[in-house]
Amino acid sequence: MSRFSGVLQLTDLDDFITPSQECIKPVKIEKTGTSTGAKISIQEDGSYFEIENDGQMQKLQKVEITLSDCLACSGCITSAESVLVTQQSQEELFKVFEENKKLYKEGKDSETKLIIVSVSIQPVLSLAVRYNLSPNEAAARLAGFFRHLGADMVVDMTAAENLALLESQKEFVRRYTSARNDGIKNILPMLASSCPGWVCYAEKTHGNFILPYISTTKSPQQIMGSLIKSWVSEMYGGRPIYHITVMPCYDKKLEAARADFFNETTQSRDVDCVITGIELEQMLQAEGLSLNSMEKAGYSEPWSKANTTSLPVLKRHIGSGSGGYADHILRYTAKELFGIDFEDFHYKNLRNPDFREVILENDGKILLRFAIANGFRNIQNLVQKLKRGKSNYDYVEVMACPSGCLNGGAQIRPQADTTLKELTSKLESLYDSLPIEVPENCKIVQELYKSWLLGHDSDKANAVLHTEYHAVEKMNTALNIKW
Questions:
Q1: What DSSP string runs through 260-317?
Q2: Coil, helix or strand at residue 436
Q3: pLDDT tens profile 330-351
Q4: Which residues contact 70 (CB under 8 A, 6 or more apart)?
Q5: What is each CA distance from 262 to 117, 198, 207, in whole angstroms?
Q6: At 63, phi and psi to the nearest 5?
Q7: N or C: which end of the chain has fewer CB within 10 A?
Q8: Residue 31, CB half-sphere, CA atoms under 13 Å: how many?
Q9: How far apart are CA 173 and CA 176, in angstroms?
Q10: Span 23-69, pLDDT tens digits
């Protein structure tokens, strides 16, 4: 069964095929300069044979399909796990750790890679619940596990999350003023871009219609990738870095594999490998370990000159457990454009708890209308309203998974005595119990804007912190015809 998010597992869309069907690129056919009129025969066991004119049969080699192939193809996305996905696996991760250990043992330190692990908050909370630990203890023991495997640094992703929020705030204000003052069309509502499941679905199903609405701000994962592979690499003399992220969903693997996030300078991806909560549980089991038994280790700050290491003190952002985009942008815009301190507000549930809205009013006039839409059904309704010209929102925080990232598709599943609803509620309570991080007050972020990005709104900041999207042309093959 595929573990990608619901919007990438649909079986009733023309540009997706069901998980039971074969990938449309299953075999490799070597081209020759001669025309032989050879035929392809599919055997009962699913293997492919090329039959020459003289009757001779040659078995065809299966193609190794990467996640990049899946992103560039409008055929299946759900078959991505059943074909040979090599660059985003536990096996590849263990291989990198072992190669580094071997080089150190042979005295070839200069040939090793600097292995850095970036950790997001949601899988840490998932592990905390699974192993009955506090969030900070779970983070410290997870850092200890990665150190045990051979990681050089384990870092918190809060700095990247702060950058994503600050850039999203400024981007929304630019869009809002352009739409209201200059009459620019098709830029509102601004739709969140941090969920790769939603972005991939938008590119493959609605293409050029929906893409102008999607925020260009990179997700925290990819901002972190740029930070590690450029700024941190530079601080360490250009030493090759292998960058791992710990994320709450499998769709983040697809995001990391996008061609847009390939670093031409280092000739590597900004994020080399994405590992999820479920996979971490499996990795611990494979090593015969429990997170409870791991020694605690600290988080590093490689972007600071001192590169200090200290035990984790986790923080959250206001708003949803998916990053709090709607809340941050609403508060910022209310103050920036209308001079209103809009701090104490509540969302109103609409069709269901996963679709809710909040409105900023002044003297009976609606100034801003924001919403949060989680899960495919709500996303589908949102897109259909946009297509009919009936959406009156200014901003929508869109996430593919019901209940958002705390319930990501690769979070550890409930134990036998707990329902999914109970687990999600526990994760939300745990998240809400953490102290609040205020992006504007983060000294690390201000230093990064100054030293790395050469200022707020600089050309470099816009190039590094923003991206673009690509409509994927539908393919008409026998495998995706609806009979």
A1: GGEETTTTEESS-EEEEHHHHHHHHHHTT--GGGSPP-PEE-TTSTT--EE-----B-
A2: strand
A3: 999 999 999 999 888 889 999 8
A4: 76, 77, 80, 254, 257
A5: 18, 21, 22
A6: -80, 145
A7: C
A8: 1
A9: 5
A10: 444 444 454 444 455 565 655 555 666 677 677 777 766 545 454 54
Q: How many residues does the chain have?
A: 483
CB count in 10 Å sphere of residue 439? 23
94: left (phi over 0), alpha (psi -120 to 50) or beta: alpha
Q: What is the mean pLDDT of the chain?
A: 83
Q: What whole-number distance in Å separates Cα of residue 100 and Cα of residue 116?
A: 13
Phi, psi dihedrals of residue 217, rounded to the nearest 5°: -65, 130
Structure token pair of residue 131: 């192993």
Tens of pLDDT along 120-168? 999 999 999 999 999 999 999 999 999 999 999 999 999 999 999 999 9
Query: Quick check: helix, strand or coil at residue 158?
Result: helix
The two three-digit tokens of residue 107, written as one number: 């005295």
One-letter amino acid of 36: T
| Cβ neighbours, 10 Å, residue 324 | 20
Structure tokens at 194: 């941090």
